[in-house]
Design brief:
Elements (H helix, E strand, L loop, with lengths): L18 E2 L9 H6 L10 H18 L5 E6 L2 H12 L5 E4 L4 H12 L3 E4 L10 H11 L3 E5 L1 E2 L4 E2 L3 H10 L3 E5 L18 E3 L12 E6 L1 H8 L12 H7 L15 H17 L1 H21 L16 E5 L6 H12 L1 E2 L1 E2 L8 E5 L7 H27 L1
Parallel strand pairs: 1-12, 3-4, 3-5, 5-8, 8-9
Antiparallel strand pairs: 2-10, 6-7, 9-10, 11-14, 13-14
The protein binds glyoxylic acid.
Glyoxylic acid binds next to loops.
């Protein structure tokens, strides 16, 4: 053999214990962590299929839906976005997107690849979309599909009025896709009551499960739309009719579609079991209380939230303006070096402008909020002091 085994793999695995308070993933609970060390199961073994059924039941609760087509796609949150879009879009369909940060633009990039005619309705920078603007855009574009993120993790904006958007979509005979990757479990989301046709979420955020397995739900209206397509869904891997049959959603014998990771299923199953045990309302309330405490603390240390309207603030991913003269990278590095704590910088339209602090799942506790506030304050002061010292030299 000409290629020797790498030296690095002769070393033991090293994984530091970090507190993940960026935009995700968040830390696992001990119960989830323990679940991940169970023996692997085959993807069609009856015990694995039973765990999938239990996950489906838990997801219906989390999304507040009775949709039979509730399942997971193997892949990160991006896979949920791809799956939602590629099942609904056919060439030439008008897809209207309402970006409030990077995710609406990412969805547009995907939708374009599936042949959509892309249109935008833009919110004012740092704000959610208002119903007047949406109604105007619907009249002008008459879209077949509308996409919105309930929570955009790049800006920390919460899109309110999803219920009204659901009604607007019905009025225009339009399908509504809602990205709840950063929001589900951290703020109210009622898929059926709000007439959302397709929704997906991130396993690794509020739910506190491993990334790589993405919950997604299609209502009957969306499934009928897929069944009436003139062309095949462009990506075999994301075809809802195939994945749904594997997940036993259509009352047909299960098929082999792909090899799901049983290990990821265990983690998600346990995360959902914890959500059910604590109760969705309690979990949402806890996230909101933590976000309010963080916002108060941010003001007390003389910083400012990026999203000015309190109603537009996503409780799970909080964006804080980087004060003039402060280097956010140095602050984040300080927090990581000294405390193994992740504070993140901005993304997309907020790059270099904000800190992002995630309060999700295990990290949505008052103790963690106080910890991150203390460390943020210390890190800013310390990096400022160092700068001043150096400028004296
Ligand atoms: C990921 O979701 C991010 O916002 O960075």
């Amino acid at each position: 053999m000409e290629v020797p085994p790498p030296k690095s793999l002769q070393q033991p695995l090293y994984v530091p214990n970090k507190t993940l308070m960026g935009p995700g993933p968040s830390n696992y609970s001990q119960r989830v962590l323990d679940a991940l060390s169970n023996p692997v199961l085959g993807h069609l073994h009856p015990e694995c299929l039973q765990i999938m059924d239990e996950i489906k039941a838990g997801l219906k609760y989390a999304f507040q839906t009775t949709n039979e087509a509730t399942m997971c796609v193997s892949g990160s949150g991006h896979a949920g976005m791809e799956m939602a879009l590629c099942n609904l879009i056919e060439d030439g369909d008008v897809v209207l997107l309402g970006p409030t940060g990077v995710w609406g633009h990412r969805a547009a990039e995907m939708a374009r690849r599936y042949g959509a005619d892309i249109r935008y309705v833009e919110a004012r920078f740092g704000r959610s979309l208002k119903m007047d603007d949406l109604e105007f855009a619907f009249e002008g574009h008459n879209p077949q599909i509308f996409f919105i993120a309930q929570g955009d993790s790049s800006t920390g904006i919460l899109q309110t009025h999803i219920k009204e958007i659901g009604e607007l979509c019905r009025k225009f005979d339009c399908l509504l896709i809602v990205d709840t990757v950063a929001s589900l479990g951290g703020t109210e989301f009622l898929m059926d009551a709000w007439k959302v046709d397709v929704a997906y979420t991130g396993s690794q955020k509020v739910l506190g499960a491993p990334p790589g397995i993405t919950p997604i739900s299609f209502n009957q209206r969306a499934i009928q739309h897929v069944l009436k397509r003139k062309s095949k869904v462009k990506v075999y891997y994301f075809d809802v009719m195939l994945i749904g049959q594997y997940w036993n959603c259509f009352n047909k014998p299960r098929i082999y579609h792909h090899t799901v990771s049983s290990t990821l299923l265990y983690g998600l199953r346990e995360a959902l079991a914890q959500l059910c045990a604590i109760g969705l309302e309690n979990v949402i309330h806890r996230h909101q209380e933590c976000a309010w405490r963080l916002q108060d603390g941010i003001e007390e240390i003389g910083l400012e939230m990026f999203v000015s309207d309190e109603n537009d603030r996503l409780p799970t991913v909080n964006t804080i303006k980087v004060p003039p003269g402060v280097d956010w990278r140095k602050v984040a590095e300080y927090a990581m070096r000294k405390y193994n704590l992740e504070i993140s910088g901005g993304l997309g339209p907020t790059v270099e402008q904000v800190f992002r602090i995630g309060l999700m799942g295990e990290n949505a506790t008052i103790e963690k909020v106080d910890l991150v506030l203390n460390i943020l304050k210390e890190a800013i002061q310390s990096t400022q002091l160092n700068k001043n010292d150096k400028s004296k030299i």
